[in-house]
Amino acid sequence: MISRYAYHGLTWIALESPTREEMLHIGEEFGLSKLVEEELFSEHAPATLDLYDTYVYLTLLCPTVNDAGTVVSNHTLAV
């Protein structure tokens, strides 16, 4: 699912469990670099901050920790 939020010329694209076709469409629509497109398909992308002329690509790794302090899963947030 793709959700868009626009404010003063800035667009936030939220992809929730996107299909491959949806991700390719976003990459084409916004002119994302091939590196960013590849990272969108990666389940294990590293934490990243890349600055481009027309956008910023930020990937955060968000672990889920149980009560014992053990990491039980990792989630990736790409901005």
What do these coordinates show?
This protein has 79 residues and is an alpha+beta fold. It has helices at residues 20-30, 34-41, and strands spanning 2-7, 10-15, 48-51, 56-65, 71-78. Strands 3-4-5 form a three-stranded antiparallel beta sheet, with no helix packed on it. Helix 1 runs antiparallel to helix 2 (34-41). It starts with a strand and ends with a strand.
Explain the layout of strands and helices:
Blueprint: E1 2-7, E2 10-15, H1 20-30, H2 34-41, E3 48-51, E4 56-65, E5 71-78
Antiparallel strand pairs: 1-2, 3-4, 4-5
Helix pairs in contact: 1-2
Order of helices and strands: EEHHEEE
- What proportion strand? 35-45%
Question: What is the total tally of β strands?
Answer: 5
By secondary-structure content and strand pairing, the structural class works out as alpha+beta
Gyration radius over CA = 14 Å
Task: Please supply descriptive tags for the structure shown above.
single chain, 79 residues, alpha+beta, 3-stranded antiparallel sheet, two-stranded antiparallel ribbon, 2 helices, 5 strands, 43% strand, elongated
